[in-house]
UniProtKB/TrEMBL annotation:
The lineage of its organism: Eukaryota, Viridiplantae, Streptophyta, Embryophyta, Tracheophyta. It comes from Salvia divinorum (Maria pastora). It comes from the Eukaryota. Keywords: Signal. Residues 1-23 form the signal peptide. The keyword Nucleotide-binding does not apply. Pfam families: PAR1. This is PAR1 protein. The keyword Signal applies. InterPro entries: PAR1.
Length: 184
């Protein structure tokens, strides 16, 4: 537990140093390799878009989405979190579709991701809520009866209240087991 807290503290300190080095982040100024899962200095999520020219050549551009990040600004997601959460920096746009993939759900709900990557958890918390799914319950359902429990979650139509997000409420009792809320 102590080593996990020390690792988390080191990871967050490193992330803050990296953020300070970048100054104000504008999505349109980010390279393809750092765009996905970044948050601008205005608190808007950055998304990678692909444009196909008439010649057939593909060009990638980082753009600012209309999606706000809860209480996060000036953030380029770490490689550690991208790996821990099973994400890909070359992913285009923002979608909740990946929540339906068992391998992705397993990585997102793992303690390594869920407890240490607040930006990603916040994003998927809000995406899941938009689909009528409460992310902590979604993560809890990943056990032996995951398919049946997921069907119940999806059919219940239960969505988290908008004011409650992993960023706002970080007590372990709010999230329960198996994944704890991220801490800062």
């Amino acid at each position: 537990m102590a080593s996990q807290n020390a690792s988390l503290a080191l990871l967050l300190a490193l992330a803050l140093l990296v953020q300070a080095a970048f100054g104000n982040i504008e999505c349109e100024n980010l390279e393809k390799e750092s765009c996905a899962y970044a948050v601008s200095s205005a608190g808007k999520r950055c998304v990678l878009d692909k444009h196909v020219r008439r010649s057939g050549a593909e060009k990638y551009a980082c753009t600012t989405s209309d999606i706000d990040a809860d209480k996060l600004k000036n953030w380029i997601e770490s490689d550690e979190c991208i790996e821990a959460c099973g994400l890909d920096r070359s992913e285009l746009g923002i979608s909740s579709d990946s929540l339906l993939e068992a391998q992705f759900a397993k990585q997102l709900c793992s303690n390594r991701c869920y407890s240490n990557c607040p930006n990603i958890v916040d994003l998927y918390f809000n995406l899941a809520a938009g689909e009528g799914v409460y992310l902590p319950k979604f993560c809890k359902a990943r056990g032996a009866n995951a398919r049946r429990e997921m069907a119940e979650i999806k059919s219940s139509g239960y969505a988290a209240p908008v004011a409650e997000s992993p960023i706002d409420n970080i007590s372990a009792s709010f999230y329960g087991s198996p994944a704890l809320a991220p801490t800062y």
